[in-house]
Amino acid sequence: MAYYTIAIGIVAGICLGFGIIFLFSGLRRRENQELNLLFAVFALSYAATLFNGIRFHNATSVEAYVAVTRWDAIFVVLAFSSLIWYIAGYTQFRPRLFLWGLTALFILTSMANIFRSNLIYDQLLGLNTVIMPWGEEVAYLEATDSAWSLLFLVGQLAVLGFMIYACIRQFLHGERSKSLILGIGVLWFVVALAAELLGQAGLIVPIFYAEFGFLGFAVAISLQMSNEIIKTEEELAAYQLDLERLVRERTAELEKTQEKLLQQTQEEAALEERSRLARDLHDAVTQTIYSAALIAEVLPVVWERDPDQGLRNLAKLRQLVRGALAEMRSLLFELRPSALEHADLGSLLNQQADALTGRTRIPVIVDVKGERELPATITVALYRIIQEAFNNVEKHARADQVKAVLQRSSHEVCLTIQDNGRGFDPSSIPAERMGLQFMRERAEDIGAIFDLKSNPGRGTKVRVTWSEPAI
Q1: Does an H or E element contain 282, and which?
Q2: Domain 337-471 belongs to what architecture?
Q3: Hey, how many other C-beta atoms are within 10 angstroms of the C-beta on 303?
Q4: What distance in Å separates the CA atoms of residue 236 and residue 231, rounded to the nearest whole number?
Q5: Tens of pLDDT along 420-470?
């Protein structure tokens, strides 16, 4: 049974697996990328030399044996070169001149073996076999070594010495766990080398132990690096959990801040609205009531002196009181917008007309035709258009008469507001001026048709027509 060949194949397979794993790890991970790639090259090269070992141990001629060992030199160089550079990175000990010198030494001896095998061996004595204790025959080459072969041996001993020194140095620098792992690999190699020498001396069973020399190193370092990868993944997972916790905390804080800002904004908006209402009360209602109070105060005297003038003042007083009442109702609608949705549009039109007359003394003729209940959105939109149209009359029209007509039928509502003021050229004024864009957008929101007609010196007419959507 070829136990020795099977054992070499198993070891080669293990190293091949480690090499592939760390090759992918080095290509995919930036952390320890150089070390992972160096170890992958070492493990794959070591596996290749073991597979070649199976070939030359089963060789049947000197030529076949030499042919295998010649090309095996490439993988031996890769294995030793990547090993010393890996040890240098692993222990953080990089005597670059020494490392490059060893690398050059291995390359030169490899080239000597590839191109001229007789440079490695002074004399090829022949192919011999050794019989293992279990009866397996293993071939080996009998030859006398040349100076190149001795030089290669010196390089191997230098690698061993460098590994031992770097391991001790790493231990003394406090990295004891990593140095112990490396020490196990070095010890395995030394024991395997010593066992082969003892076997050649006939003191123990003569087996090629040196071929398994790097197995302990490959396994120990692989487990160490795998443990570091697992540890890194665990640290990343813990970091991710901490990051998620931190995100949740910051999100909760942000939500609380947003709630505070929203509450503050609402309070500021309420305060601003109160200030606006206070200004409206002062600008419109208070002044109207003050004017009404003055008329009421002098009305008895004027009545005794001139009854006709007294009647006229009484009509003014009535107009002022109605205007003040209309302004108060408008302000109440602003405070309670929900009440606006249930109000009658005709009443709202009369109310706004009274408010305009109370503020400006401009008479407003209101004509409401027909009755029907409108959807809340339609009522609110038309009410806002009425407000804006009357506001334009007050600020820009310089009119002395306004007519507002509201026609309601079962299928259509038409609102017309016309003044006899100075008018304007619609093409010369931007749409966003005078609230025109606001009225147009309000009409479009409810699917109504907005029409504006005006000419300089001939007044302005605003017409909004809303039709019941077809079912």
Answers
A1: none
A2: 2-Layer Sandwich (3.30)
A3: 15
A4: 9
A5: 999 888 887 765 565 788 888 889 999 999 999 999 989 999 999 999 886
Measure the CA–CA gap between 354 and 361, rounded to whole angstroms: 10
CA distances from 49 to 39, 70, 73, 348 (A): 15, 11, 8, 100
Contact 152, 109 (CB under 8 A): yes
pLDDT tens digits along 137-163: 877 777 776 777 778 788 888 988 898
**Phi, psi at 464, each rounded to 5°:** -125, 125
Give, rounded to a whole angstrom, the gap between the first and last alpha carbons of the chain.
95
Instruction: Show me where the domains of the chain are located.
Output: 3-213, 337-471
Question: How far is residue 442's CA from residue 384's CA, in Å, rounded to a whole number?
Answer: 8
What tokens appear for 363 in the block? 């008479």
Q: How many CB atoms lie within 10 A of CB 137?
A: 12
Tell me the Cα Rg of the chain: 52
Identify the CA nearest to 226 among candidates 190, 181, 188: 181
- Residues 169-214: tens digit of each pLDDT: 988 988 888 888 888 888 877 777 777 667 656 666 656 666 677 7
